[in-house]
Amino acid sequence: MAAFADRTYIDLSVASKPGWALGCDKCRYGLVNPPPVTVADTSTYLVRTYQAANDRLTFCDCQAGQAYRHYLRGRYADIKAGRDNVPPDMSRALTEAVTMPTLNGEYVR
Ligand SMILES: [Zn+2]
User: Fold this and answer.
1) What does the pLDDT look like over 19-37, one tens digit per residue?
2) 68, 77, 100, 101: which could join 30 in a potential S-S bond, CB 3.0 to 4.6 Å?
3) Is 13 within a domain?
4) Domain that holds residue 62
5) From the CA of 58, how far away is ligand 1's center (Å)?
């Protein structure tokens, strides 16, 4: 029987935040100058998913950016295929939020 001293422990503070996922000096978590997430009553990943699907995000060419692009593409495919439950009215609101320009002509959401 193994004693506690024989066990291998992982450093959770490192394991939960792999360095590459933080991005590089050109980006933040793989996104270059990302628009804010300001759609009410929904999740950050959903807003980012719709922003990505509507070409509102600039992904970095580093590992974080490519991983984030791949992840969001998968989330959007799941939504479109009905594998992720996003109610139609929320889907419409998210689409409008990320496709509607502001008074300054910028897409802020
Ligand atoms: Zn980067």
Assistant:
1) 888 999 999 999 999 988 8
2) 68
3) no
4) 19-99
5) 10
